[in-house]
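Schema walk-through. Below, the input block comes first and the output block second. Nothing else is stored per chain. Lengths vary across the set, and this one has 204 residues.
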Amino acid sequence: MNFSKEELLANISDLFLTYGLRSTSMEDICNYLKISKKTLYHIFENKDDVVEQVMLYRLESIRKRTTPKKISKIGPVLVVYDIKKHIIENLNSRMPANYFDLKKYHPEVDKKIRTEKDKIMKSVLKGVLCVGIEEGFFKKEVDMELQMLLLNRQLSFLEELERPLDTDYPVPLLISTIVDNFILSISTERGRKEFENIKKEEKI
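--- output ---
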C-alpha cells in the first residue's frame, strides 16, 4: 500500500496506542501496514527512529490544532478546556503507558521528546495566552512564563502514571482541578463568564 509519511506515522501511532511501544515490533508494523521490512527500513533506521518520529508527529498535530487563527476562532478559554478534556480522555488509552515505555525502553529518544514537548507546549500555551489577553479573556498583567511553568510542573505527574499516586483523589479529578484553577487564575471577568458558560453547556 502507498502511504504518505503523515499517514504512515498516523497508522503506526494507532498501533502503538493499541499494543504499546514495547510490545510492537518492526515486524508487527510491517504486517499491520502490509509493507515489506525492506520498505520499512528504507523509511526508518530502526525502532528508536520509528518511536521518535511517531512521538514528534503527535506533538506536531497538537501544534497544528492550536494556531493563533484557530485559537481565536474557537476561543482561548475553550481551547484550554478542550486540552484538559483531551488529556483526561487519553487516560483511558495506552498513551500514559506509551510515555512510560518511552522513558524505560527508549531513554535517548525520551530525552529528545521531552525537550521538544516542552518547547511545543510552551509555544501552544503562549499562543493561547496571547490571544486570550488580546481578546480580553485573560488578564494583561499575567506572568505568562510563571503560569506556564506552574501548569507544566503540576501536570508532570502524568508521566509517572505507571506508578500508583500517593493520593485518594482520582487522576481525572486532579487534572480537571489543576486546569480549571489555571483558567480561573488568569481570567478576567469576561473569561470567567466564558468558563462558566462552557461548564454549563457541558452538563446539558
